[in-house]
Amino acid sequence: MSRANPTNRTSQDEQGPYQWTYESIVDAVPGVTLPDWLALTIQFVLFEGLLLAIALRYDLWDGVPAGTAAVVVATTGSALMLAIARRIRTLSTPATYRKLLFGSSIEIVLGLLSYVGLVTYLFVYNPRQSGTPLLESILGTEPPIPAVFLTLLILWDVCYRIGTAWWASVTGFWVAVRRPTDRETRSQLRKVDALIIGFSLLQLVLVPFVRDHGLLVFALVGHVIAVTCVSGSAIFVRSRG
């Protein structure tokens, strides 16, 4: 939804026209160029506005706290994605790394896998367990179609960012091990690794809303631990380089 305007140390040809899939959305709209802060504001206001409108229309106020938390996670995740991309584009990193990270769209695949797993849990696994299903506790026993649509859309936004954190941590570790860089670049990339860890920690905001659903808690906490271990290992390797 927002286009980054990187300042490169190397030429544009060397850096390559690589972007997160998220960043490329605005580029698909001719003549539209939004500053990051405005794109992020539009993202939050649009989703939160729809959330509140549906809550008002169908009296679903019990679901607003969880929905707002998911919107905050998605919007803040967008801001961190832009910050990570901007930092990487200012560094003299290998073109292969930038192509893998931004140009492969693997984060979409990983996000899709997590989304399919979540949808399977919500509509198949969870209803077969004892207790109130998660969607029913949020949207009621007969959820309105617009509410379900918006819920799934926001959840996709969150899952996409989970997939992005996975891919950013893996590629960061790969370049730390396989592609040595100068001391200054290593120092800056350690900051990127720390941002990626923060990016994953952001998802823990959702844990209180699924605390009665052990499998989802396990998935969220496990995701954070995995990213922290991989990106933490990248920081360790860069510190010894």
From TrEMBL:
It holds the Pfam family DUF7530. The chain crosses the membrane at residues 37-58, 64-85, 106-125, 145-177, 189-209, 215-237. The keyword Transmembrane helix applies. Signal peptide: none annotated. Keywords: Membrane, Transmembrane, Transmembrane helix. The keyword Calcium does not apply. This is Uncharacterized protein.
